Structure formats: structure tokens, C-alpha cells
Amino acid sequence: MSLEKEVELLRRSPIFTKIDLPMLKLLCFSSERLSYEKGQVIFNTGDPGDAAYVLVEGHAEVTVPTPSGPLRVTVLGPNDIFGEIAVFADVPRTATVTATSRVVALRIAKDQLMGVVRQNPDAALELIGILAARLARTTAQLRGIAPSLPT
Amino acid sequence: MRIRLEFYQRKFFIKFVNNFLSQVTPFLFYAVGGYLVIVGRLDLGALVAVIAAYKDLPTPVKELIDWDQERLDVSIKYAQVIEQFTADELLAEERQQPLPAPALPVAGSVKVSNLTLTGDTGDELVAPVSLEIPLTQHVALLGDHRGGGSELAQMIAALVVPTHGTVSVGSIDVTGAPEAVNGRALGYVGNAAYLFPTTVRENLLYGLKHFPLREARYAAHRAAERGRELREAECSGNSVLDINADWIDYAAAGADNEEGLDARIGEVLRATGLEETILELGLRSAPDPARYPGLAERAIRARAALAEGSSEMDVRGLVERFDPERYLGNATLAENLLFGTSAVASLDNDNMASNAYVRRVLRETGLEDDLLEAGRKVAATMIELFGGLPPEHEMFERFSFIRPDELGYFRELLATVSRRGLKWIAEADGTRLLALTFKLIPSRHRLGLIDEAMQARLLEARRHFARHLPAELRATVQFFDPSGYNSAESLQDNILFGKVVTTQAGAAARISQLLRRLLDAQGLRELVIRIGLEYGVGVGAAQLTIDDRPNGWRSRARCSSGPPCWFWTKPWPCSMRRRRGASSPACSNIAKGSALSGHCDNSNSANFSITWS
Asked: Looking at the domain assignment, is residue B494 inside a domain?
């Protein structure tokens, strides 16, 4: 896939729509395009967060380790961004992401992503919106399973 | 030294002859002339006149005076230099003599009595301490770095002379024993031990080299030289021990011969956790096949085994093999064209575009124009992507094909090209554009400039390149041959025989694992470790990672199983514990064969420990 197609893909993602084209191209050029096999772990909970990923092809699942086994939080498909929490909050990975089919992802390194967002306040606002929505979703999930948790 | 002596001697011989000749003439005047005057054949006045005219006498006297001044000058300088070497607190000479095989303590305890250390400024570094520890015990001393623990350990290990007090280990009084004994009996690993800039093996065996044990054999002319050196050393009071002799004390290492020593080194590497690093170094080095007979064949067999691939060793998705009929998506265009390694700089990745033969190949295969066009597109993309960035931005170094200071040149060049077309640009400019194209890696750069059609033509160019390679370049190029060993490439690259697929996540780590399994399956482990041991550690151990250096020091101490006592200072037990999660396995690993029970207590607060075996 060429650079142009990747840029197109990124533009469809809400965060990157607000970023201007040359910057987006630079971001794509400096990212790595990685393939993962089915079942391969992309990153584990607790790993240092050094990059964000954009799914280009395939599907992956996000799980969180619990005492009773991994708990599936969500499923990711093409065009989804993941891994950005650790990049922006400078915390270790909050979840494990595993490929459920053959996956191709764009790996955007932390420095590059931070630089771009810093220069594009609109993109930052978009990102905040997405993270807030995610938080709301997670809270709702917790409320859903709260009765079954031991006190 | 000998040469200088020669020169010196010759110079003074000439001077002597000069002086003699110039002095013998007046002498003859006096002798012969005088006789003639006495006999009456010569007028005295004439003789005097001749001699006066031949007034050479002052010159030797002047030279004599000069020489005397020089002598005085040199003797003052000599006195000053010698003064620097006479210090008060030097160890007595008898204690510094090397000994062939001194007796070592094997049982007893370490007795420290009233040991004190005062620093140069008068502050007390170690308060008077007395203790007794049996040699069979393993002890950890806890405290912070100002507590004097390192100094205590160093005093017991005979590295620092105590101000007061005595130390004895078994039957040996450490404070009075000769260095030859202390050096063999006690080992110390501190915070920043020194690694010599030689090979790993040399560093490991350093601790075994106490005294020349087996004489070196010399060829006839070398023997005469050696005799001269020996005489010189004796006359000037230097050591007469031969550095070319075999100093390695095999017995102290617990081995009978070189093979036994290799096995012992292997054990030590496993115990100190350095084995993986050495294996890695061995794989990364490019050993000379002539030095290791059988290496090339075994590497090729490993390569074939990898290619066949079983289910556990499936390397297909991870390595793109060098196939003459395929274009390598994970290699640069230059590498694809050359399809081999070159010993000369002109066929290097960076310089291929300026190589005349390469340009000829491109012209003859009709690729030149298309590649120039591709280069133009690359330049345009680079300017578009990086043109707006400040010059110090790190992205330039990491991703851009064009340096910040070259941007202006390329902008102008592209402007010229758009006006006049590619055909009319200068050769040098064309080379710069081609240099950009040559750096393209399809899988990494994804600019879409090297499509399938272009790849087919480049394959044709590859074949053309190999067929018509001129004689003078042929000797410097080793093409990738599936059945040949390439001595310019590392061992790992020879076995993999391909490029790592960087787009496959985690490829490097998995390949590493596969290689380890392959080495075991093919029985190549010892050979690779042997090769790895020959790796140069660099000045200040620069070639080893920071984590590995302490392992290197410990391995050296551990290699000589002779010393009954070793001393580790921080932070070894703690870091090992954190890494492995349990202290005993780490300690008992190191102490194979001795009575070390191994425990690291209260590790998080421990800052150093003394362990005895």
C-alpha cells in the first residue's frame, strides 16, 4: 500500500481529520507498517507505551487481565486507533491487544504523534472527545458487571 | 632500542675518526717538524708559522666543554626523573616479586583484627573493626555507600593498605604476604572494575596469568633477538619474564589442557549469565573461515536446515531469502542491483550511484531515465515532507533521504529539471538523484515508485551487472550464492541468507529464538561461543552493554576457581534477585562446586555484600 492510501486511511479517523495534509503525510512516512499473525500479541498490559497504532487490515481484541482470567473489553477493526492512552498519559499499557486475524497496523511512534498533536489543537480536542467517550463506555460496562463482583 | 644504539654507535665512530684525523696532523707537525728543527734541516720560525696556521686545537677543547655541560644537564634531569619513582610508601620489593607456585590457604577463617583506614585528609573511613568468619560461610554486609563497606572489602582483598590492624586469611597474613599470594588467593569485584580492550577470552583468562609456566619456542633468528632482550632486561633491572610464554595456569582453572579450559569457560559463562551475550556476539561477528576449519560447511548446512523449515523453525514469514530470481522487498535498490557484498567503497550502498560501471549498466539496460525520474519524485516528496521543518528537527536524521543543508540544492535542481527536463541535467546532478533512488526500500518507504514492472527490469539489470562485471571489480565482489559462505557478512547473516522482514512485528526477536534452537540442533553452540569469545570488547568495554560488564568482571574472577574468597560489591545480589525473583538460584549457580548456600537477605536495603565460598 502506498503512502497516499495510508494517508487516506488516516484521514478517515476522527483524530487525524483535523490535521493538515503535509503533516499527515510526514506522520505516515515516519511510521512503520507492521504485520501480525493471528493470535500474536501486539502489546501486553504493563508494557511501556512507546507508540500508538492504527489498524489497517484485520481485527484485534482488547482484553484486560483480571484474577479470573482476561476480560474482553472491546473488538477493534480497520481504521481504529489503539494504544494512544499510554502515549499521552505516559503510563504503562492499560490493556492487552491481541490480533484475532492477520493484522496490518501502522505504528506511530510517541514522539511523532505528540509533535503532531501539539501543533494541531483541533486534533487534541478530537482526541479528548474520543477518550472521554471511551471512559463513559468503560464506566457503563463496570456498572453492568458491578453486581457480580465480590465486595 | 637496538636501532638507536646502532645509530649512536655509528655517529660517534665517525666523530672519532674525524677528531683523530684532525688531531693527528698537528701531532705529526710537532713530531716530524721538531725533529727536523733539532737536526737543523728546518727553520724553527717556519715550523711555528705552520703550526700557528693550523690552529685546530681549540675545537676539541670546545667540544669537551660542550660535552661536560650536556653531561651535567642530563644528570640533573635523570635525578629528577628518578625522584618521581622513589616514594616512601612503596611496597617492599620482595613482596612484589612474581612467584611460580605459592601455597594458598584452603581452610581456616578470615580474621580481621583492629582494622582501620584513615583517608588522606585524616577522616576515618573505617573504624577499628575485628571479626572472624570461617571460609565456608557466605556473608552479606549491609549498609549504605558511606558506611565503609567497600573499603573494608578492599582491605581484606589486599587492594588497599590498612592504616592499622591486620588481616589474615587461613594461614596467610594478608597484610604481609607477597602480592603473588594475595593475587591468587583473593578476588574482588567492585563497582567499576576494568576490562582490557582485547578479546573477551583474554579478559576472562587474565585472572589465570600469574607466572610464565610454559616456555615459548622461538625460531633461530627470533631466539637471538630474545637473548639480546634478556641481556638488556637484566642490565637495566627490568623483569626477565617472557610475555610470549604461556602464562595460563590451567590447574588453577580446574582444567588439564586447552579443551578443558574451554569447557570451564563455558561453565563460567553459564553461571554468570554471560553466555547469551557471547552467543550473540559470536553470531554478529564475521569470522574468517580460514581460522575456523569446518565453519563454512556447517554454516551452509544450518542455512539449508533453516530453509527446509520444520513447524517449529518456520522462518519463511520472518526472513526474505536471497533469491536471484526475485526482487528483495526488504533491501535497498542498490543492494538488489549488486546482490552481494563488496569490499570496495565505490560499490557501497551510498556510493553506487557514482560508480561508472553501474551507470553503464543502467544505460545499457535502459533504466537510467526511469530511475532518474524516480529520483526526482523522491526528491520532490522529501522536500514536501521535510521542507517545512526546522533544520535541527530529529526527523531529518531518522527519516529523510536529504539532509537539511541539501534542501536548497534539491529545490533548485528540481526547478531546473521542470524547466528543461531530465535529459539535460549534469552528470553530477544525475548522480545525486540516483543516489536517492538507490536508497529506496519498498517495504519500508511505500512510495510506490518500484512497481512490479520496474522490479522485473531491475532483476534483468542485476543479471547484466553480474555478467559484465569488469575484472578489477570482480575480485572485490562476493555475490549471494546459496551454496557459498560469504566471509564479508556476519555468521548470522550467512545462516539466515536473507533480509529480516522488518514489517513483521517481533521478527527480530523470533529469529533470535529460532537461531538459538537451530544452533542447538546443529551442534554449533560451542563453535559460536568460541567465536564470540574472540570479540573485542573495545576501549572501556564499549562493545559490551552496561548490564554485561559486571558479568564480565565476575566471570573473570570466577574463571580461576583457585581463590577461596571473592568479594562482590553492590548491587549484584539485589539486581539478580529482582530479575529472577528468588535469590538462591542465582547465588548457588555461581557457587557450583563450592559450599555456597546462597542467600541474600533484606535485599532492598542491601548495598553491598561480601561472599565467601
From this structure: no
Paired sense of beta strands B186-189 and B565-569, if any: parallel
Q: A114 CB near a chain B CB, below 8 Å?
A: no
The span from the CA of B420 to the CA of B418, in Å, is 6
Strand partners, A99: A60
Count of A–B CB contacts within 8 Å?
46
Give the residue numbers spanning the domain of B79.
Answer: 2-85
Chain B residues lying within 8 Å of A39, measured CB to CB: none
End-of-domain residue from the set B65, B85, B105: B85
Cα–Cα distance, A109 to B470 (Å, whole number): 45
For the whole model, what pTM was predicted?
A: 0.66
Regarding the domain delimited by A3-145, which CATH topology (the fold level of the hierarchy) does it fall under? Answer: Jelly Rolls (2.60.120)
CA distance B337 to B465: 7
Whether residues B445 and B573 fall in one domain: no
B255, B394: one domain: no
Q: Does A8 touch chain B (CB under 8 A)?
A: no
Task: Give domain status of residue B529, yes or no.
Answer: no
Quick check: is B290 in a domain? no
Measured at the CA of B220, the angle between CA B219 and CA B222, to 5 degrees, comes to 65
CA B508 distance to own-chain centroid = 26
Last residue within a domain, chosen from B453, B479, B505: B479
**Is there a single domain that holds both residue B265 and residue B120?**
yes
The total number of structural domains in chain B stands at 3
d(CA B451, CA B105): 75
For B116-143, b where at least 16 C-beta lie within 10 A, e where not — what string? ebeeeeeeebbeeeeeebebeebebbee
Q: Average pLDDT across each block of 10 residues of chain B; the chain has 613 residues. List them in order.
A: 89 90 79 83 80 69 84 91 79 74 72 84 84 78 75 82 84 79 75 78 81 80 87 85 80 75 82 83 86 87 80 70 87 88 82 86 88 89 83 78 86 88 83 89 84 89 89 85 85 87 84 86 86 81 68 64 48 35 35 32 32 36
What is the chain B residue with the closest CA to A35?
A: B504
> What is the number of other CB atoms lying within 10 angstroms of the CB of residue B392?
8
Whether residue B429 is contained in a domain is answered as: yes
A105 Cβ contact list (under 8 Å, min separation 6): A33, A34, A36, A42, A53, A54, A55, A56
Query: What number of other Cβ atoms are within 10 A of residue B159's Cβ?
Result: 15
**ipTM of this predicted complex?**
0.77
